[in-house]
Amino acid sequence: MDPNSKTIPSSAAPPEKNRGEVMAEHRLKTSVAIIGCGDVGSTLAYTLVLQPICSEVILVDPKEDLLQAQVRDLGDATYRGQTGARVRAGTHKDAGQADIVVITAGAKQKIGESRLSLLSRNLHILSSIFQAMSPINPNTILLLVANPVDILTYFARKLSGLPESQVLGTGTTLDSARLRGILAQKADVAPNSIDAYVLGEHGDSQFIAWSSCTIGTSPLRLALPQVSDPAFKKDIADHTRGAAAAIIAAKGCTAYGIGMVAASICKYILFDSRTVRPLSFYQPELGCCLSMPAVIGRKGIIKKMPIELDESEQKNLEECAGNLRAVIDGAEKEMMADEQLRKALEADKGS
Ligand SMILES: NC(=O)C1=CN([C@@H]2O[C@H](COP(=O)(O)OP(=O)(O)OC[C@H]3O[C@@H](n4cnc5c(N)ncnc54)[C@H](O)[C@@H]3O)[C@@H](O)[C@H]2O)C=CC1
Ligand SMILES: CC(=O)C(=O)O
């Protein structure tokens, strides 16, 4: 062989790629579809295009003028091309082929309204979305954001026909971020030095897993002795549970917190990062979807992470599951009375 030749001999094995190269190549081809580009969907899209998370963001919304305007505005934010992400409008069918489909479509709470009051409206929207996306990419990961997120995650699992591990809701990740924020203020440390979870419903029956909270490696009772006072714990829990209502009362929606939470979950999935977060996913022993700590990766929920709950937290969990189960039972009856929803549910039973 000519020693000066630059041609690679055909028998040479291609050089092995390291994990970074594999992930970079993978990132070149990854798409996140966002169904619903109102306040939450557009904030999520903005958060995604500012970080190197995916190569393409597909927006879907029946409000054509809003959709085109969001795509143009977000496109303007990508002009420097630092992350390489592109934004485009798509149909529900296009979205169903994406690597991740994030569902933010639906009604939102008005002042004083609870998340559960949105159920009937948002269940109809959810069912129509799955009909329009069908046939969905069997490897897609579905991330539910629209409320009531635990109940919609439960029905998305049924309506999509996807494996349980591929259907998850943002759940109490946002509530846990709020909890870490307030505990960080009280303890005068950075929020990322705190490990503290809100579990159960992303809603009124949520509870804090106090017994497992730590700051650094210190149990909370050592790092923040005020937690021995029940009134202090109640204030923290009320502050965390009431955060959404307080923000909505003043500005009409919450968007930045959930935008960051949902974008981070997309990143954990696409980077196969195996990060632990409290996500809403199906709990067979409880018969509903609610948030428990889980390991997230490229295939969705990789596994449930065990957590020790004390007696009162275990009671909270069971009460929370009982409430959610009662709402699911009521919604299933409503679905059976509604022709379109009944067909969607029966199609799932037949598959
Ligand atoms: N899980 C969480 O932590 C959070 C959940 N949310 C929930 O997210 C949802 C969206 O909130 P916002 O963006 O503020 O509401 P929004 O009203 O600003 O936007 C909703 C969008 O969904 C669109 N939409 C309706 N039907 C659709 C369909 N079939 N396909 C595609 N798009 C459709 C609407 O046209 C609208 O543009 C609400 O249910 C809200 O409660 C909001 C914040 C946090
Ligand atoms: C709206 C909502 O669910 C939240 O901000 O927690």
UniProtKB/TrEMBL annotation:
Alphabetically ordered keywords of this record: NAD, Oxidoreductase
Residue ranges constituting the Lactate/malate dehydrogenase C-terminal domain according to the UniProt record: 172-333
Catalyses which reaction(s): (S)-lactate + NAD(+) = pyruvate + NADH + H(+)
Gene Ontology cellular component annotations, sorted alphabetically: cytoplasm
Chain intervals for the UniProt region annotation (Disordered): 1-20
InterPro entries linked to this entry: L-lactate/malate_DH, L-lactate_DH, L-lactate_DH_AS, Lactate/malate_DH_C, Lactate/malate_DH_N, Lactate_DH/Glyco_Ohase_4_C, NAD(P)-bd_dom_sf
Binding site for NAD(+): 36-41, 61, 122, 145-147
One GO term of the biological process aspect: lactate metabolic process
Gene Ontology MF terms: L-lactate dehydrogenase (NAD+) activity
Residue positions of the active site: 202 (proton acceptor)
Feature: compositional bias, Polar residues: 1-10
Protein name per the record: L-lactate dehydrogenase
Species, as recorded: Aaosphaeria arxii CBS 175.79
Phylogenetic classification of the source organism: Eukaryota, Fungi, Dikarya, Ascomycota, Pezizomycotina
